[in-house]
């Protein structure tokens, strides 16, 4: 199980692609790739930037 967890952490949980440019959200610590973070910020309503996993403010 630990080995599986280590492998999964190297992929973006949104697009499932390898995280080449990883970005960590400071409020919650979740990681995603730079492209998915940019898409998340572009699609945020009323400039409320929320983590796609736990909805905390970015």
TrEMBL record:
Family matches, as InterPro entries:
Znf_C3HC4_RING-type, Znf_RING, Znf_RING/FYVE/PHD, Znf_RING_CS
Q: Does the keyword Zinc-finger belong to this entry? A: yes
- Please name the GO terms that the record assigns under molecular function: zinc ion binding
The answer to whether keyword Protein biosynthesis applies is no
**PROSITE patterns found in the cross-reference section:** ZF_RING_1, ZF_RING_2
Domain of life of the source: Eukaryota
Q: Which residues form the RING-type domain?
A: 12-55
Q: Which UniProt keywords apply?
A: Metal-binding, Zinc, Zinc-finger
Q: How is this protein named in the record?
A: RING-type domain-containing protein
Organism from which the protein derives: Bimuria novae-zelandiae CBS 107.79
